[in-house]
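Q: Predict the assembly, please.
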Amino acid sequence: MDMSFTDDELAFQNEVREFLRDELPSEMADKVAKGIELGKDDMERWHAILNARGWLAPNWPKSFGGAEWNAVQRHIFDTEAAAANAPRIVPFGLSMLGPVLQKFGSKEQQDHWLPRILDGSDWWCQGYSEPGAGSDLASLKTRAVRDGDHYVVNGQKTWTTLGQHANMIFCLVRTDPDAKQQEGISFLLIDMNTPGVEVRPIILLDGSDEVNEVWFTDVRVPVENLVGDENEGWTYAKYLLTHERANIAGVGFSQAGLAAVKRMARAENHNGRPLIENPHFAARVAQVDIDLRAMATSNLRIISKAAAGGAPGLEASMLKVKGSIIRQEINDLARRVAGPYAMPFASEALEGANDTIPDPLGAGPVAAQYFNNRKLSIFGGSNEIQRGIIAKVTMSGGRA
Amino acid sequence: MDMSFTDDELAFQNEVREFLRDELPSEMADKVAKGIELGKDDMERWHAILNARGWLAPNWPKSFGGAEWNAVQRHIFDTEAAAANAPRIVPFGLSMLGPVLQKFGSKEQQDHWLPRILDGSDWWCQGYSEPGAGSDLASLKTRAVRDGDHYVVNGQKTWTTLGQHANMIFCLVRTDPDAKQQEGISFLLIDMNTPGVEVRPIILLDGSDEVNEVWFTDVRVPVENLVGDENEGWTYAKYLLTHERANIAGVGFSQAGLAAVKRMARAENHNGRPLIENPHFAARVAQVDIDLRAMATSNLRIISKAAAGGAPGLEASMLKVKGSIIRQEINDLARRVAGPYAMPFASEALEGANDTIPDPLGAGPVAAQYFNNRKLSIFGGSNEIQRGIIAKVTMSGGRA
Amino acid sequence: MNFELTEERQMLQDTLRRYLREKYTTAVRNDILTSDAGLSADIWSELAELGVLGALFTEEMGGFGGAGFDLAVVFEELGRAGVVEPVLDSALMGGRLLASAGKSDMVEEVIAGSLHLAVAHGEPGGRYDMDHVHTKADGGVLIGRKAVVMNAEAADHLIVSARDGDAIALYLVAKDAKGLDIQGYPLLAGGRAGEVTLDKTPCEPLNLSLTDLQAATSLALVAISAEALGAMESATHLTKDYLMTRTQFGRPIGTFQTLAHRMADLLIELEQARSAVINAAGYLEASDADLHLSATKNLIGRIGRLVAEESIQMHGGIAMTQEYELAHIAKRIVMADHRFGDTDYHLERFIALSAA
Amino acid sequence: MNFELTEERQMLQDTLRRYLREKYTTAVRNDILTSDAGLSADIWSELAELGVLGALFTEEMGGFGGAGFDLAVVFEELGRAGVVEPVLDSALMGGRLLASAGKSDMVEEVIAGSLHLAVAHGEPGGRYDMDHVHTKADGGVLIGRKAVVMNAEAADHLIVSARDGDAIALYLVAKDAKGLDIQGYPLLAGGRAGEVTLDKTPCEPLNLSLTDLQAATSLALVAISAEALGAMESATHLTKDYLMTRTQFGRPIGTFQTLAHRMADLLIELEQARSAVINAAGYLEASDADLHLSATKNLIGRIGRLVAEESIQMHGGIAMTQEYELAHIAKRIVMADHRFGDTDYHLERFIALSAA
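A: Predicted assembly structure:
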């Protein structure tokens, strides 16, 4: 057991810190710190900065232009980036589609699409969820019917994050209507500029417009955009879902969020003393701090195991549940710190344009974030789904 | 809406207080306050005191020798009795069997058994649960086979509270082995001095010996001890289970327990100040105090509705769950107050005989009580069973 | 002991519930939410006509209610429907303060729905501290700044707290008074508030002290707790319906035991919240009213968070969308914790009062 | 970064686990529990022979371990098996204090299993306060009273804290010393303790201060946390097995979704507890060790209660019976909270150290 970083790891950590200090634009970090929505320009700019350094695709093999970092390196980068309030990498092309194409795509698909992910030519979004399907992905209804050299796609996807910025979408579509459940599903790449594709924003309860519905009406998709084999899409979908887990606990985000809560609570006054000195508030902060310290170590343990070749499927579910609970608790604390000033609806502040919304703690729209992050326990496999997985795996003879 | 007692109710409250002040033996109250197990003598003595006043059977009709109190009167008595640390009435004859005999028993059975409950001639215990059956009462296996004027009983009952003191047991037995589940069950009264009845104590995790296993080997029971009709016992069992609910929330016990916690925490020192002034401990006390105040009002609301003819089935389940959680939390607080002195195993102190066990707060065996009262959420229909009932009733169209 | 509503209150409850169910639909409310005014003048008039505003005042004040249970009945229904109109701030707090000041003409207008008020008390950095008043009253004018003043823009008059020497007193300021500046903004859970600056603003002394403001805040605590209760009832009801109708993996999700048991826990806690509001309303005039009010606000804060979060979680994605009824209801519940002292503030007050 | 056990520790863990599984069965342990001594001399000798006691000491002290992870490995296994022998108090705390005092002969005996010790520090009314020492050292004798002294009756020597003037120092008292009185009693979770009275009892100064005692307490915090973790692992394991084998309403109760999900939550929290113990062990020598130790003890206290209560609840009645393994394990978990500062004590210490 050794909980400290090796010399190599420490050197890498320094390299990451220097990079962030020199290359991360401060106005971008400020937006992230305040929970203000980033525009498409911001995200593209950050991707370009990372790509110039060769760090945009940490998990891709070098042969595809990736950094090919090991799990500990990725953990170090994620932690440092969150602490520096760097934007999150938009994951759809880099963390989701990329690995699928690398494993199941044709040579032509790899050569065509992977460089375009890195250089920003394409902005990908994800077409998995459908209305009424929720966590039950296998019941999807969007149909793709072969017609000569094309598939004709009809149906609807929902919860498509950042779809408004995307020009490409990877979709699960049903190609065999008679097959049951997971069978008969294919994995299709669709150009969103094709006639018949319509994107409609879904306004979330915090006023944000980051998710969308995507409608397909007789959309013609060239057959060369089929990934792998027809009716085998479920295999690729599962691979995608289970692939990117290094940062599933969101340790870095929670650490940054908790630091912000402490900073705010030192500035906020409660009956003549800083709020952080109030025993009841301090107890709330301390408990989540303690929980987070333990989870950070769990995360390191699991990452170190993954680096050693272990399979962290069960642990990923555990980290997702605990990670979401901790992040949501931190959002709750931020809301509490703000007191009456949590009430204003900073709709414009979400995009950083409003001066009339009071924000005395420089905290940004903390209540809006509290509501927005309820999604953490719902999307990407709800906490109930994760608990079901944990129970199933362990009760069928796994470790306790 | 009027939350205060009427003049009549206030007068009754005074009467109860005077009675408790004059008649409740102080050494008995002291044992109850400290959570020390009462002996059979204590319990019989208290029953006799209540019976002399005509208050032993609050819920029985006057025609059977009961007090025939309304729900509010019973609530007042229960609350005052708990505050005065009066022993709990042993419920098996009075609250359980009594009402069943009154509704389903024959005239002969009523004339014979009911007076003997009041005057203490019989000590009843309950033969419902069986090993491996848990909350699934309908799967019981104890068999009773008709043989002339007798039933011959074979089988085993468990969790028989205070069975070691009892001379009589009322049992659910299977009289038709071919009927499924709830059918084919009969309600039988068995003299525990009959050959073939054996009582073995179950030592609970806190060292107490209040529950027992009862074994029946070819026990011959006269047919006149069958209550109601053969194979209809399930009906009577359900009636019994749902009958006595007035005190299901245990408000009085929780109030007395919380008062004890506060008293102890004023006496206990924490870094030079009374523990009660410590903000973190005070927060724990305050939250359960607040919860208890709300539950006390819920209890009054439901009682007042029952007095007005409402049917509190759903609410009884709610009160049982919340009531057990609150009482268990109070037990947890008592354990915390005691600090290192929670550790001694006061086995003899349970029966009040040991001077070597240190008890500086006069709190009695608080940790033992903490463990013993885990039973509150398990026995008598576990909290899981209660939640299932609540969900079923409300989801099938009840009120939300 | 009697927990039945009086006939009058039962009628008020029925009338208001029916009116809101028919008129204050999700669509109507969502239009109000996105409007510039942030409230509907028509709804306000109709609430006045229905006697809802009058129910907040005693007969001596010109109303026909005014007791704790009257407030509880009204605000529970407003909460159930997610009403964003400022009944609490404008009519109840403002109106009752004016009634205490003997301004019966103005109270009459409030009850008639023709006068809007705002109570400008909190200040930047003051959090929930009632004593935190730096605004100064000096020779008939006010100088200072007030934070998150509910309904400030729509108010015909503002009731402003200020220090005259050491003592805190209340003053009346007309909307068009010199040196009055209001920077308005919408609120996350609906309605509007503003930052108010007073720069030598002429005012009228109301002969009311901090004690009067505390009394009005006690009324507000009953009201906000009842409102949150009503919203919790809606949240629970919506969730129950959703669990019974939504199917996943081929069956209603309410048949999944985990959700069924969590629903049961919500129902249990909802009963606790109901009893807490009854305690607040029933003990409003008692000598230990503050203890009961803090107990209630703390419990409502804790259970409110549970109900809001669990309702969203059990709905899943749909509850995350702004247009869905629960989204608004959940925001009302959670943001109620930010008014008149939050969960922790009232826990501390309860502890202090318990020790006293 | 490396979270694998070293080969030596892996071997120690395997050996100890196998030994306890074979020898320290529920029946054997239940016999020990009800014995007059409250501990088994045979088990003690065998633990010494296996090197378990030696693993608690560094090589310089004559052992072959002594680091945080050595303690964690040993006590996790002792906790898993619900061992009641006083390894923590007699060997670890007592032995390490003597090692600090340079009493290498006695340490050798401790490691060999031939010397029992007790640490007599806490006093009536002192709760978890380390400074609360009223016992006086005066001219070679001790006067005072010590509370809940673990293993007091079996100890060959007691290590007693006392004030010489203002300073707290430690003294060695032989079991047969004049004026030493021990009123012994059993403990709810097994083992024995006693109230110790010192009436002009001759003693030997150990040249150890409160700082040394605090250092030994830090070791004890790692040990008690690891022990609780091991017990939690047992509780979780027993519960998982029970859910898979016990049937009700015709199916294994683990297939009821509510229990399955609650089991999942226990497993999640168990991972948290495991990481917390790793933190305590791994940062034991760090400059901010106290912060980590308090974080761990607080977390273990919170999760321990959850695991104990949920394990009992999911078992139902069977877990309420003394002879069932879980009953003992649950008591070990909960009563660990009463040693070296409870959940709240360490929450406060964490807050204070965080602010520093």
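Residues 118-208 of chain D form a domain with the Butyryl-CoA Dehydrogenase, subunit A; domain 2 fold (CATH 2.40.110.10). Chain D has a mean pLDDT of 96.
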